Automatic annotation (TrEMBL), chain A:
Stored InterPro entries: Cbl-bd_cap, Cobalamin-bd, Cobalamin-bd_sf, Met_Synthase/Corrinoid, Meth_synthase_dom
Every B12-binding domain range: 93-222
B12-binding N-terminal domain ranges (all copies): 1-93
Name this protein carries in UniProt: 5-methyltetrahydrofolate--homocysteine methyltransferase
GO biological process: homocysteine metabolic process; methylation; tetrahydrofolate metabolic process
Pfam families given in the database record: B12-binding, B12-binding_2
Alphabetical keyword list: Cobalt, Metal-binding, Methyltransferase, Transferase
Assigned protein family: Belongs to the methylamine corrinoid protein family.
Cellular component aspect of the GO annotation: cytosol
An MF annotation (GO) of this entry: cobalamin binding
From TrEMBL, chain B:
TM helices/strands, residue ranges: none
GO biological process, one term: porphyrin-containing compound biosynthetic process
Name of this chain's protein: Methylcobalamin methyltransferase MMP0830
Keyword terms of this UniProt record: Methyltransferase, Transferase
Pfam families linked: URO-D
A GO term for molecular function: methyltransferase activity
Taxonomy, superkingdom: Bacteria
Domain Uroporphyrinogen decarboxylase (URO-D): 8-341
Keyword field contains Methyltransferase: yes
Originating organism: Candidatus Jettenia ecosi
SUPFAM superfamilies, per the entry: UROD/MetE-like (SSF51726)
Signal peptide: none
Length: 238, 350
């Protein structure tokens, strides 16, 4: 017996919220069997669940372990659906380069922001951690990135953000810059000329949206197969 | 100095602990790797041997006369001594490079530390001894130990570790048990060396995990640590940085006598746990010490005092987390001067 489409979508969302990787995977397989549109399954199922996760994080009902595991469930579902997505899409997505600045290897905060921005429809390019300043500038230039996200947990490395911003300017790269991390304050962000500051991963989505002025519908990045390369385990995540 | 102290830092801390009269509240910026600057050492040189670490802290104390001399370079020292590989930047604190427990099988290789010979612990022990010999009459020498949860995270890799709070709680408890034994072994060694060990548990911050997980995976082990510290008749000190509002009740239940806190309003902290524990904190290391100026820092110290000086169980003027290595000298002076002046009892902030 086949379930209703809405029922399947609800199960997908709930699997993400419940951090249930197996359920996400099985339900994604059911999506294919029942001939539900895989794009819809991601948008109105998995991603919708992740939106709820974001909300739970904002309300301090979910914390870091929960987000990481919810994201694992979401990506497990996407992994199953990916082969069935159209090979080409005409969406223009906002490109984001993200990384932890040189000297710092703490990357959990950065990974959370990456997950949330990914889910919010940005094309994420993760440079990992302990990233040389020039790497941010080069990558932003090559990709013509809309946004560069800089993260650090340490007071010793926070000034590196200023260097990156200056170097971007010198190189004539128009990418906007958002900064965040433990020691970073809105005042510091302003002083170094950042375009935005986010105090956590949930806020990062709002701030990024404001910065890139995405007033048009910004489609879910995950539906484009090649962009799913940001899945966990790549781009410097350990 | 415009406000001379009447007691030595040691007399002051001792009197404060014993509930006797003190000239002023303790002023204790968390000077850790910053001490390297007093001998113009890079942080990697500072951490390289006990002579450097000890002598830099001795020079630093002679320069600033702060109330507590901490011996520390990274929260992962215990994990390092148990097998985690570290990365040593030229002029910054060591960071975890490769966690020891890569696969579950590795648990079999896990042993509690022998502080006399494992990893770089002998460096810290020597630093403690040098400081005790040189300045131990004037000030307590306080080595800082990464508590069980923080040590376990560094043994496993933090991201993997916190996911396993859900997916493999048994592994977490196995790690926590060995880590707790290591912490206790290290406490024994530091006490023997003449130090007064304290513990930091930053991975258990409310920025990272929920109160539920704190209760299940952190609290029982912290209780064991503080009851061990209390067996030496020493006070338990627990530092957790980041956001702590969600976990501060648990922190106060751990048996720690002093909570060193960071991102939480001191008024709120006082209200929540002030009847139970002494509070310590929470001037901003980045906006205050590193990026601020003497005027800003003085205002911040006064703000801390206005909020917490009347905490029922006492208050220590401190930074919320480690003093940044590049903190300007005049900012450190401003912090200490403001503390000496405005933390005099009875408190008068004018």
């Amino acid at each position: 017996m086949q379930r209703e489409k809405t029922d399947i979508l609800t199960t997908l969302a709930q699997a993400v919220i419940d951090m249930d990787i197996d359920c996400a995977r099985e339900t994604a397989a059911e999506v294919i069997r029942c001939k539900v549109d895989p794009y819809t399954a991601i948008m109105d199922g998995l991603a919708k669940g992740m939106d709820k996760v974001n909300e739970l994080f904002e309300n301090e009902e979910y914390f870091v372990p929960e987000i990481l595991l919810c994201a694992d469930a979401m990506y497990a579902g996407i992994e199953v659906l990916k082969p069935y997505l159209p090979k080409e899409t005409a969406w223009s997505k906002k490109k984001v380069v993200i990384g932890v600045v040189k000297g710092d290897t703490h990357d959990i905060g950065k990974n959370l922001v990456k997950i949330m921005l990914d889910n919010a429809g940005f094309e994420m390019h993760d440079l990992g951690r302990n990233v040389p300043y020039a790497k941010f500038v080069d990558t932003a230039g090559e990709l013509r990135a809309d946004l560069v996200c800089l993260s650090t947990l340490m007071t010793t490395t926070m000034d590196g953000m200023h260097v990156v911003i200056e170097d971007l300017k010198k190189a004539g790269i128009a990418s906007k810059v958002m900064v965040g991390g433990g020691p970073i304050s809105p005042g510091f962000a302003r002083n170094i000329g950042a375009d935005g500051y986010a105090k956590n991963a949930a806020e990062a989505v709002k701030v990024a949206n404001d910065i890139v002025q995405s007033n048009h519908f910004s489609p879910l990045i995950l539906k484009t197969p090649e962009l799913v390369s940001i899945k966990r385990g790549q781009g410097g995540t350990r | 100095m415009n406000s001379p102290d009447e007691m030595t830092p040691k007399e002051r801390l001792l009197a404060a602990i014993q509930g006797k009269e003190i000239d002023r509240l303790l002023v204790s910026p968390l000077i850790l790797n910053f001490a390297s600057r007093s001998l113009n050492l890079t942080v990697s040189d500072f951490c390289a041997n006990g002579k450097n670490m000890g002598d830099a802290n001795i020079a630093c104390f002679k320069k600033y006369r702060h109330d507590i001399v901490y011996i520390f370079s990274t929260t992962s020292t215990l994990a390092e001594a148990m097998g985690t590989r570290m990365y040593f930047p030229e002029d910054d604190a060591p960071q975890v490079e490769t966690p020891f427990i890569q696969v579950r099988e590795d648990l079999k290789k896990l042993r509690p530390v022998d502080p006399e010979k494992d990893g770089r612990i002998p460096v810290y022990l020597e630093a403690v001894k040098r400081c005790v010999d040189a300045i131990g009459n004037d000030v307590f020498i306080v080595p800082v130990i990464g508590a069980p949860f923080t040590t376990s995270a560094a043994l496993r890799g933090t991201e993997r570790f916190i996911k396993e709070l859900y997916t493999d709680p048994e592994l977490i408890h196995t790690l926590m048990k060995v880590a707790t034994q290591s912490v206790k072994n290290l406490i024994d060694a530091y006490v023997k060396a003449g130090g007064v060990p304290v513990t930091v548990e930053p991975i258990a911050t409310g920025s990272m995990i929920s109160e539920k997980h704190f209760r299940e995976f952190v609290l029982p082990y912290l209780k064991e640590v503080y009851s061990h510290i209390h067996s030496y008749n020493l006070p338990g000190v627990l530092h957790i940085c980041g956001k702590t509002k969600r976990v501060i009740q648990c922190m106060a239940e751990s048996g720690a006598d002093i909570l060193s806190i960071d991102t939480i309003d001191l008024l709120e902290a006082k209200e929540l746990v002030g009847e139970k524990v002494c509070l310590m904190g929470n001037l901003s290391p980045a906006d205050g010490m590193l990026k601020g100026n003497p005027e800003i820092i003085t205002a911040m110290v006064k703000d801390c005092l206005a909020k917490a000086a009347d905490n029922p169980k006492g208050y220590v003027v401190a930074t919320g987390c480690e003093v940044p290595i590049k903190t300007p000298h005049e900012n450190m002076i401003a912090f200490l001067e403001a503390g000496r002046r405005f933390a005099r009892l009875p408190i008068n902030l004018n």
